[in-house]
C-alpha cells in the first residue's frame, strides 16, 4: 500500500468513495441531499492523501495543514478493517507540527474506538448540524 498526494484524476473516484463511505458510516443521518460534489467542498484548501494498492484507491484523508486538523478520513467500505485507515491516520499525524485535532461524531462509535486506539484523547464536546461530536487531540511524541 502506498500513501500519496491526491491528483485531479482521483476526483471522480474520491467523490464516489466519500459519498458511499458517509452513507455507510453515518446511517442515522438523512443522506437524501448528499451529492458527489460534497467531496469538493469538504476538502477545499486541504491537503488530501490517498491510500492505494495495485491501482485501487482504498481511502483518503484530508488535513488542514495550518491547523494540524484532520478533517476527513474515509475508507471504502470494501477495504475497512484491512489497515488502510491506520496507514492514512499515521501518515496524517506525521504531517502535524504540533498537537493534532479532529472532530468525531458521537454516534460514530467505530470511529471513536479507532481514534482512541491510536492515542487520540477526548478534549471537549460540541454540537454540529450532523449531531453531537467530540473534539479529540493527538499529542506528538
TrEMBL record:
InterPro entries: Acyl_CoA_acyltransferase (IPR016181), Bact_Acetyltransf (IPR050832), GNAT_dom (IPR000182). SUPFAM superfamilies: Acyl-CoA N-acyltransferases (Nat). Keywords: Acyltransferase, Transferase. Residues 1-141 form the N-acetyltransferase domain. It holds the Pfam family Acetyltransf_7. It comes from the Bacteria. This is GNAT family N-acetyltransferase. The lineage of its organism: Bacteria, Pseudomonadati, Pseudomonadota, Gammaproteobacteria, Enterobacterales.
Amino acid at each position: 500500500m502506498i500513501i500519496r498526494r491526491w491528483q485531479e484524476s482521483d476526483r471522480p473516484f474520491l467523490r464516489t468513495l466519500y459519498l458511499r463511505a458517509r452513507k455507510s458510516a453515518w446511517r442515522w443521518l438523512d443522506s437524501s441531499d448528499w451529492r458527489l460534489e460534497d467531496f469538493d467542498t469538504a476538502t477545499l484548501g486541504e491537503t488530501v492523501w490517498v491510500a492505494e494498492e495495485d491501482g485501487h484507491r482504498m481511502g483518503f484523508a484530508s488535513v488542514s495543514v495550518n491547523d494540524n486538523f484532520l478533517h476527513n478520513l474515509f475508507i471504502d467500505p470494501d477495504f475497512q478493517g484491512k489497515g488502510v485507515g491506520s496507514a492514512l491516520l499515521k501518515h496524517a499525524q506525521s504531517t502535524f507540527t504540533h498537537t493534532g485535532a479532529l472532530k468525531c461524531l458521537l454516534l460514530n462509535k467505530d470511529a471513536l474506538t479507532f481514534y482512541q486506539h491510536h492515542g487520540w484523547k477526548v478534549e471537549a464536546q460540541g454540537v454540529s448540524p450532523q449531531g453531537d461530536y467530540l473534539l479529540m487531540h493527538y499529542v506528538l511524541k
